[in-house]
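To assess whether the prediction recovers the assembly geometry, we first specified each molecular entity separately, as shown.
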Amino acid sequence: MRPTTSTAASTPPRSEPTLGEPPDFDTWTCPVPLRDHDRIVMGHGGGGRLSAELVEHLFLPAFGIDPAVELHDAATLDLAGGRVAFSTDSYVVRPLFFPGGCIGDLAVHGTINDLAMTGARPLALSTGFILEEGLEMATLGLVAEAMGGAAQAAGVRLATGDTKVVERGLADGLYINTAGVGVVPEGVDIRPRRAAVDDVVILSGAIGMHGVAVLSKREGLEFGTEIRSDSAPLHELVATMVDTCADIHVLRDPTRGGVATALCDIAVAAGVGIAVEEAAIPVPDAVAGACSFLGLDPMHIANEGKLIALVPAAQAGGVLEAMWRHPLGRGAAIVGQVVGDHRGLVVAETPLGAHRVIDVPLGEQLPRIC
Amino acid sequence: MRPTTSTAASTPPRSEPTLGEPPDFDTWTCPVPLRDHDRIVMGHGGGGRLSAELVEHLFLPAFGIDPAVELHDAATLDLAGGRVAFSTDSYVVRPLFFPGGCIGDLAVHGTINDLAMTGARPLALSTGFILEEGLEMATLGLVAEAMGGAAQAAGVRLATGDTKVVERGLADGLYINTAGVGVVPEGVDIRPRRAAVDDVVILSGAIGMHGVAVLSKREGLEFGTEIRSDSAPLHELVATMVDTCADIHVLRDPTRGGVATALCDIAVAAGVGIAVEEAAIPVPDAVAGACSFLGLDPMHIANEGKLIALVPAAQAGGVLEAMWRHPLGRGAAIVGQVVGDHRGLVVAETPLGAHRVIDVPLGEQLPRIC
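The predicted structure of the complete assembly is given in tokenized form:
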């Protein structure tokens, strides 16, 4: 790939990491003409000149990567050693753009968050695109810029990537896979099986926004107040928490399957019971209204900017205070406790004082949410 | 995810890493009933109970992973420190099964090879699946077993994964993304820009088999002899070469775009000329015949079990001998040299003594080849 200096100079201003709604495709301009293609053709996935041009003129500028960078089959990262976290997620969200974000920043935030749930500091992401023949170049450009902006805002490098193209009618525009690598700080050991009786369950904020935002956009539903996705990178919030209490037992981001699935997974993995106080879980009015209208349980709705932490009771106060000082933890609250009863089960006390078993949904009430 | 011991016991015998042709779907049996689904439904991608069952009862047994393993948002790897290689590739090959392999082992070999091209020892892969609603469970089972078999044969861990499901009509059965992490040995610095004048160009064996095998299966073409994909993991061959000559300058696997694109990329990246002796490049008769029939250039056809090495002239003999001792390097030959002339260009001397410029194809003559 021949480096050019003109490319960087003609890069349009980066979009905000969180895109507004609706995206303005007309303002996106290709840094240099991609052989006059305003749509993806099969050859963009062929590994030849068109593929190279797509990387050089669309992805590198959008990702904010110096076009003189040396491209290779794999990126190399210098690590001081120790434990490395490694995760992957594919993103097939529909629609591609929704209130509060798009598939691009979602794909960056989601994998950063998976890494952060081990306490890791995320270092680098890979970006694997599967593009549909006929996809508008402007759409891809906005998605790529959202990825670049999200990665830069998070201080994470988009280190290596790949692009494939499939025929028209497949892939629904585009799918993205991001895998990520991070470093787990010395002494940090955060994983589901470390949940222990008497641990306090902390939730970082209000739930249900991502799932309801995507659903409402997709189905053309309006619920009065517009609900925006909570998509956000949680690694800095986690770093703050780890600095306060390196002995956090479990972290989990309640994405697909929602808070219910996250808690159930932990209860089963660690063989503990989890008692939840339902009234303590913040559910925005608009989410509650949408769920009531649609017959959904907010506990099953996906989030992408929230986390659940299980911490030793003695340290819960300090962790909470640290979370409140971070913008993404301002709504943090204690919502439950790990108990020796009903091992493997999550039981919620309802606002009326009754108890109900919280279960994992069988499938997904809201498919294609991430 | 509840660990079971019965799962492991009822796992069927693993398929060979390289599947025969045609695959026998009838012999694949699900280790335990996946809720009586013999096809993928949307709920298998929902993050709920069906997703968990797919992981527990299909992927873990197929990958040969102890069902008691602790699953988490990210895997952690212990590294001694140093340089880590990181790569990703999505696989959209059609058909899913072809002579000599399937999308599963291809996805393992391809990312292992990308890592190996930095000289890295591959350690772990992630597996990201995008499944089409309605995909037969037996198909997915065979693909997953081929991945598990290929990873075990290569000594690489399938460390972390993700599954999404999209509606019927999208995704063409399934797509796979694998990202990989490896460790680059001390003192090894292999990358395109290290190509230097007088370096010898070595090709590890005969070209064109993967592309022609996939194409012939897809289009129902017969070329006399059946051509089988050369899909294979190259990291052990690379380790042998590095042991002989730690100062290998460049390695490249000529996948999409073929040997032509790989050499052109190196010539441009390093600003050197590459002179190729066309008669020295081994092209099997069946590949030559197919290319002649179809009007394709064997130099543009994708491979997945071959590599190109650029090594200092003084060490070429030793590297070649080391390659010949490895099963995947038995056909290794010197095919060219780096020159100070025609910088940025690859020029081949034809068998008739004429010279032609070898160029990168514009798009892809054979889409969906990997």
